[in-house]
Input
Amino acid sequence: MPDRREPPVEGMDAFFTARVDTYEEHMLASWKEVYPLFASLLPDGAREVLDLGCGTGLELDALFARRNDLRVVGVDLTPAMLDRLRAKPYAASLELIQGDYFLVPLGSARFDAALSFETLHHFPYGKKLGLYQRLFEALRPGGVYLECDYMCDTREQEDFFQAEAARLRREAGLPADAYVHYDTPLTVERQKELLTLAGFSPIEELYNDGGTVILRAWRE
Output
């Protein structure tokens, strides 16, 4: 659990801007083997893809290593991350949007698939529900949502991280809705509950190493 002597919590955009040069090395150290697995779960028929919190595109590296027929809309809060992604060899297949994926219009029945990789564990239950409802609407019938993220083992862990996030915001003088880089994962059961409430069915748990989980949810 977090040490109470840790440095003050950082805003989301500032955190990633300061670490853009080391971001890929850091992420690959934890998930080098998971990115190809995640990419392999995209249905063969998916062509139009939405990537939330796309960052520098590590999950897209794995996707485009398998496929060259994709069109991807990527949304990320941090301009420095998107600048790195624009330098990737498949950049011509991307439409990149710098913005808050909770606010950016996602459209209706526009995408065959939507993705998020290690981005949504910073946000609470209610905020995720609204996003999942918008994702459901943005997918075509038969579309799929793939999520890889941190998830808790117990509700007690979930409650602890939520309380710590609230404490850190108070100590930093930040409002409750400020985006901060602090992990507040939910349990696998609560994640599945949210996706069900948003309309997804079935929901498959395809990977779980005791912390990192991959879920695949379908819009029938």
Remarks:
- The beta strands are 48-52, 71-76, 94-98, 111-117, 139-150, 203-208, 212-218.
- Residues 155-172 form the longest helix (18 residues).
